[in-house]
Amino acid sequence: MALRLTMPDCFPPLVGIAGAGSRGSNFARRYLEVELLPEDRQSGCCLMALDQPPSPCPPTVIVIAFAGDAGAHEELAAWAGYLQSSDARLALFCMVGDQGPVELPGPYVLIPDNAATEVQLTAALNCVARSLVGYNLVNLRGSELREVCQGAKRLFFATGRASGEERAQAALDQALDAPGMRDRIQSARGVWGQVAASQAPLLWEAVTVIDALQNSTPDGAVVWAGGTHLPVDEGALRVSLLVA
User: At residue 57, does pLDDT exceed 60?
Assistant: First the structure.
């Protein structure tokens, strides 16, 4: 049975999180148990676990899958089929490794299968889900994420963490130093970013990241970024990017 959060009737869930396969389902459940902050639970944060296709469907649905996980391919195909005919306005798939030939009704975030898999996956989920439902210095909405994802088949993910006076720029530079990321930024059609710290980042830190991204992307690229409060090492700041 997936964890279900209690939310006021007047404040419907904005983002549903589901897992395909046993490992994906366990990760989705654990993410909601561990990553949500006490103030999220008290305020009825708009994140919910989905253990089966819901009715009605939340506006945004994120499905998590791990390559080679028992049952993941079949369940992923079932979710893809359901979401193609649902009223979800955005379907996003977080894929750890290559799941094989499944036709997806939305872009996927491909995360390399390595020792940092779960850390990277958590950061990717936070970048999307918490940017939409968290406490943002620069408010982000699902419509803006859809604009970034418009027509994309794959989103590239990178994250960086830094401390000190210039931590925003240093964390952004670390994210951009991920293999191939600077080349992707220079030809990007859209970028979705999150600036996170244990104590809410300063407004100028979020603006620093937005300005740097706008200066690095082609004319006409869609760039959205916000700052929010998330568990990060004390004094540190994390920048996460999804690039289409």
Answer: yes
